[in-house]
User: What shape does this take?
Amino acid sequence: MKAIIVDDERLARNELKRLLENFPKINIVGEAANADEAIQLIDELHPDLLFLDIQMPGKTGFDLLSELEGYVPEVIFTTAYDEYAIKAFEFNALDYLLKPIELHRLSEAVQKVEEEIQHQQERTDTAKEGVKVLGDNDQVFVKDGEKCWFVRLGKVRLFESMGNYVRLYFDDQKPLVLKSLNALEERLDSKVFFRANRKHIINLQFIDKIEPWFSGGLQVTLRGSGEKIEISRRQAIRFKELLSL
Assistant: This one.
């Protein structure tokens, strides 16, 4: 299991590495002292796991996760502050360890990671047996509470991540389905549905207007609804390549 430690304090990184010597399945493949260094390492090494500090000079650990596109490792937050716990789990963190980190708590966190990665592999193996890419003409069954829909995917203009759920936007409906945005992205036709940022997938057929946005990104306005969605800087490069002559 490949892991990266992200912490601006060298002593904290060294202490965590010392504790992780008790877990031979964890292979520390890199260290970063800030978010920008970490993003570069994640792109290069595709680790399975991040041990991530929250309060760092410049960008926080939350900022780092918000800037990741596509591939996102499992996350264990390591911090000296307990007030960020609720927000941490909004980012689907597997655990939240308070410094100084105790060995038994680290052991519990590592076990959670091992179980989650095993479950992911099982889901991947199952999906490969009969995976089908869904296009805009495919119809899907959606159930939210007592309400049910049989909707053509081409009518869905937007998918929005809501923790472990995804909200679908079509007509004037906004049902929630129990599925991660990453899992959903693997099933959708990339010629029609585009990953705009960490939280959104947009239907390219619904784009009404495109504007330059901050830091080299773009902002698109969706036809009919008027919803404005940011395309992050890194995804904006892919977007231009995809839609240019």
Q: What stands out?
A: Helices lie at 10-20, 35-45, 61-67, 85-90, 103-130, 181-187, 233-243. The CA atoms of residues 127 and 187 lie 10 Å apart. The longest helix spans residues 103-130. The chain has two domains: 2-129, 139-243.
